[in-house]
Amino acid sequence: MIFRLVKIFLFLTTLTVDSFAKTQYFNEGVSLFNNKNYNQAKFKFEQEIVLNPKSELSYLYLSKIFNNLKKFKLEEQNLNTVILLNPRNEEAIYNLAKLKLRNSDYKKSKELNKRLINLCKEFCAKSKNLEIEIENLSKK
Fold first, then answer.
1. Which residue, 34, 45, 56, 127, shows the most beta carbons closer than 10 Å to its own?
2. pTM summary value
3. Which structural domain range is residue 33 located in?
């Protein structure tokens, strides 16, 4: 009986330490990102992903880092991962639509923006502006 209680206690302690580590890596990554220390932030978000492969926000921050570093293919890969993990992530859909527009893929950008309009809560105004931008650029 005591052995079983000790085993449960050790399991719960390990679980708590693991959860703390994930949060710690993510929080450190956000802090480094806000200070524009992108390479170290990238490493922290990658550490978070190793421990939590479904860390949607870590992939989102990685996409922002790659955008700042002008590595657009890696940005797109991470945005697609965010959308795969959470198809309703407005920021990822918006950023991917902007990326597609930058690459002159008007059809895909328009498609993503329509999707965003259908589910928007926080990005409604940005989505309307993007719709105008897509129309203006696609006419040229």
1. 45
2. 0.79
3. 1-86
